[in-house]
Amino acid sequence: DQGPPGSSETPQEVVDQLIRRSMEAKTHAYCPYSNFRVGAALLTHDDKVFKGCNVENACYNLGVCAERNAIAKAVSEGYRSFRAIAIASDLNDQFIYPCGGCRQFMREFGPSWEVYPTKSDGSHVKMDVSQLLPMSFGPEDLHQHATQ
Amino acid sequence: DQGPPGSSETPQEVVDQLIRRSMEAKTHAYCPYSNFRVGAALLTHDDKVFKGCNVENACYNLGVCAERNAIAKAVSEGYRSFRAIAIASDLNDQFIYPCGGCRQFMREFGPSWEVYPTKSDGSHVKMDVSQLLPMSFGPEDLHQHATQ
Amino acid sequence: DQGPPGSSETPQEVVDQLIRRSMEAKTHAYCPYSNFRVGAALLTHDDKVFKGCNVENACYNLGVCAERNAIAKAVSEGYRSFRAIAIASDLNDQFIYPCGGCRQFMREFGPSWEVYPTKSDGSHVKMDVSQLLPMSFGPEDLHQHATQ
Amino acid sequence: DQGPPGSSETPQEVVDQLIRRSMEAKTHAYCPYSNFRVGAALLTHDDKVFKGCNVENACYNLGVCAERNAIAKAVSEGYRSFRAIAIASDLNDQFIYPCGGCRQFMREFGPSWEVYPTKSDGSHVKMDVSQLLPMSFGPEDLHQHATQ
Ligand SMILES: [Zn+2]
Ligand SMILES: [Zn+2]
Ligand SMILES: [Zn+2]
Ligand SMILES: [Zn+2]
After folding, report:
1. Strands of C114-117's sheet, edge to edge?
2. What is the rounded CA–CA span in Å between residue D143 and residue B17?
3. Cβ partners under 8 Å of residue D41, min gap 6
């Protein structure tokens, strides 16, 4: 029994594997406008991995980020309980952190799961959703509104 | 040889099957705010099907539609050449047409592939992307801008 | 008495003036990523004009189009009844048509008001929202869902 | 001379006034789907105030938040240097924090300006953009990418 999401540390070898999957995901990026490839690999609580890439649009504002792509894909297959997400780009000297929109999209599925921004050499930092989006609101807060 | 995307009519039995897949997709919708379930099933030119559902967010504006989900998912697996998409909802008396954002997202991958809005009983209409988004701009038009 | 929105033709001099305002609006565009400036000028039913420009973001997907900017601005000042919108860009040889997302955003405030895509020399075409977004759904359709 | 944005503390009376303006802004909210009214008031470095409200859409995902509305409005009038933003909702017992998308939209115009989430009675907390969006990326980081 693994308990609720986030209740136990993800083993380093699993994290390393997830990072490799995020790099694979990046190869499918459709980004003719930015030429900025991003990949994401999402690990569900029951150890399934979903890979997403950024998908841009001629109307820039309508594109989809890699992280949101991976999460929406998982949801479309019936998964809503997530353990970790790794994010890859071609940046050599900077970790690729998720945009604010993706942080909120992650938050929808809980505040306390793991996020692994990486550099192109695979080095990474470990964070969790609530560190990236402090003082957030989520599904619970809208319920509070509805019952006020 | 099937020729370029959209060059031949999709057989009715394939369309019917695609519509059934869009209804299956709908069952995974995450829509606690609207309670409006939508599913989409996307057929690639080489006969692979990708299913998407709507994934809402406590910040309404950050959600992902079913159609965009299905397309982004296909792109994340390396597919960019599409033949048809079917869209399902729980509306009994109305066909579920894609929103303008999804029409633009479809348009990115060509103006002339098939769209099948349906009612909950599976009845459908056949349209193509350019009928739903006339006078559109796409990737080619931005290139024109860049070289002006 | 002017009747309901869209009930009478907008005089050509008013349209020409609106187009000039959309060109002015363009000068404030914040578009360091695309370098594609867009301006919009929105005419309310009681003859007030709101000017919008595109506002891009380092996360491309989170930017705001000129048309949505102008409409949101009008709503923020208490206006929801629109007669016409003009759209300007730096394209010399093409009319600048709104993206699908903006067409849907326009549609929220009625299907039958005027849209004027222009070229950089001020030449224009006249369309209405429903021509740009046929078979659309709007606020009424969600009500239908709610009462089904 | 006021120095660069954020270089000096905003006086309490100015903050209180800004909060009142955010409450006024809320009255124009167009939110037939969520019934969750939000207002924002944005103070530029040269003491101009822009008010925004949320503007929802039948396609939920295409709506505009109050904060993004206020900022896009200011940009459309030629302002890009911001000192503070106040945010108001009808929540009595919770401060209304910005969504992740709006945090990223704020970040585009600098990491260190003030954000004032409020409760319906006008009580507030003081934060800055970087506290709400730690480890963010902005315009500078994309430049870094381009020159790599
Ligand atoms: Zn993102
Ligand atoms: Zn859509
Ligand atoms: Zn647009
Ligand atoms: Zn927001």
Report:
1. C49-53, C38-44, C82-89, C114-117, C127-128
2. 47
3. D18, D19, D21, D22, D24, D25, D49, D50, D51, D52, D70, D85, D86, D88
List CB contacts (< 8 A) between D124 and chain A: none
pLDDT at D137 over 80: yes
Rounded Cα distance, B48 and C144, in Å:
34
Are B82 and B43 in contact by the 8 Å Cβ rule? The answer is: yes
Is-catalytic flag, A67?
Answer: yes
Q: Report yes or no: A61 at the C interface, CB cutoff 8 Å.
A: yes
In the beta sheet, which residues pair with residue D84? D43, D114
Alpha helices in chain D (DSSP H): 12-26, 66-76, 100-107, 129-132, 139-146
Q: Return the closest-CA partner of residue C100 out of C125, C54, C147, C67.
A: C67
**What is the interface pTM, i.e. ipTM, of the complex?**
0.94
Give the pLDDT of residue B145.
Answer: 58
Helix (H, G, I), strand (E, B) or coil at A116: strand
Bridge partners of D117? D87
Identify the CA nearest to A109 among candidates A87, A96, A128, A122.
A128
- Which residue in A has a C-alpha nearest to residue D138's C-alpha? A99
Structure tokens given for A1: 């029994």
Selected catalytic residue, list B13, B56, B67, B140: B67
First to last CA, chain D: 37
CA angle B5–B131–B137, rounded 5-degree value: 75
Sign, CA torsion B31/B32/B33/B36: positive
Backbone angles phi, psi at B129, to 5 degrees: -55, -40
Q: Which residues of chain B have pLDDT under 50?
A: 1-3, 5-6, 147-148
Which tens digit of pLDDT belongs to each residue from D39-89?
A: 999 999 999 999 999 999 999 999 999 999 999 999 999 999 999 999 999
**What is B7-50 written as a DSSP string?**
SSPPPHHHHHHHHHHHHHHHTT-B-TTT---EEEEEEETTS-EE
Q: CA torsion angle for D82, D103, A68, A47 (degrees, to 10)? A: 150
Contacts with D, A 84-143, CB within 8 Å:
90-97, 99-105, 107, 117, 127, 131-137, 141-142
Question: Residue holding tokens 């005027």?
Answer: C114
pLDDT in tens, chain A (148 residues): 344 544 578 999 999 999 999 999 999 999 999 999 999 999 999 999 999 999 999 999 999 999 999 999 999 999 999 999 999 999 999 999 999 999 999 999 999 999 999 999 999 999 999 999 999 999 988 765 554 4
Question: What are the start-end ranges of the H helices in chain B?
Answer: 12-26, 66-76, 100-107, 129-132, 139-146
Answer for the pair B65, B101: CB distance below 8 angstroms, yes or no. Answer: yes
Selecting among C9, C56, C67, C77, the annotated active-site residue is C67
Neighbours of ion ligand 1 (CB under 5 A): A 65, 99, 101-102
With left for phi above 0 and alpha for psi between -120 and 50, is residue D24 left, alpha or beta? alpha
Level-2 CATH architecture, domain B12-146: 3-Layer(aba) Sandwich (3.40)
C148 burial level (CB within 10 Å; 0-12, 13-18, 19+):
exposed
